């Protein structure tokens, strides 16, 4: 079965890393289903039954998004709140996510050096984004190591070096997925 990548980027057309990752995933449709939340729900009205059925028909899922203030974009937060319902995702009778591989893939605008105890953020990426791990573990999903890429500062020039780094990040993402979501 395939891996579902739930992509939440409010402006994917203007994205660099997340768009490159989505394009790389699209080259392997037999392995990955890319589900763009902002394209599917421009009105922000999430069809819970459809989303749950989509998760049910995949062996694993990854939440892919750019980090916004140590969190995800609003529509993904709404997706988590609406779709991960009691009785389906969690609770004494819930089995939908039990043992299903799940994780996150994120792009960060801040450099890696900022995500250290002595850096500007003051902790590692995994620690900053631990609520995602806690949520998925609470739903009994099989949490996988996160993929993260420290990429583009919005004030930086988009040049050949940056293009090469983004292309490499897409290849690194595919390697990560192949390792943890075979």
TrEMBL record:
Query: Domain Flavodoxin-like fold spans what residues?
Result: 1-171
UniProt cross-references to Gene3D superfamilies, sorted A to Z: 3.40.50.360
Give its E.C. classification number.
Answer: 1.6.99.-
Q: Which GO terms describe its molecular function?
A: electron transfer activity; FMN binding; NAD(P)H dehydrogenase (quinone) activity
Q: Which InterPro entries match?
A: Flavodoxin_fold (IPR003680), Flavoprotein-like_sf (IPR029039), KefG/KefF (IPR046980)
Principal EC category:
oxidoreductase
| Keywords attached to this entry | Oxidoreductase
Q: Which domain of life is it from?
A: Bacteria
* Identification of the protein by name: General stress protein 14
Species the sequence originates in: Cardiobacterium valvarum
């Amino acid at each position: 079965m395939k891996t579902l990548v739930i992509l939440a980027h409010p402006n994917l057309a203007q994205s660099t890393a997340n768009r490159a990752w989505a394009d790389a995933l699209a080259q392997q449709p037999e392995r990955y289903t890319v589900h763009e939340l902002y394209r599917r729900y421009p009105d922000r009205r999430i069809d819970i039954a459809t989303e749950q059925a989509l998760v049910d028909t995949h062996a694993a899922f990854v939440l892919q998004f750019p980090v916004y203030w140590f969190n995800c974009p609003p529509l993904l937060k709404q997706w988590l709140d609406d779709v991960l319902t009691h009785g389906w995702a969690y609770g004494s009778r819930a089995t939908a996510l039990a043992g299903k591989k799940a994780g996150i893939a994120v792009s960060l605008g801040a450099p890696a050096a900022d995500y250290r105890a002595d850096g500007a953020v003051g902790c590692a990426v995994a620690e900053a984004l631990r609520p995602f791990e806690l949520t998925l573990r609470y739903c009994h999903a099989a949490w996988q190591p996160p993929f993260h890429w420290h990429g583009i500062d919005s004030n930086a020039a988009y040049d050949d070096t940056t293009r090469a780094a983004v292309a490499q990040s897409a290849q690194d993402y595919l390697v990560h997925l192949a390792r943890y979501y075979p």
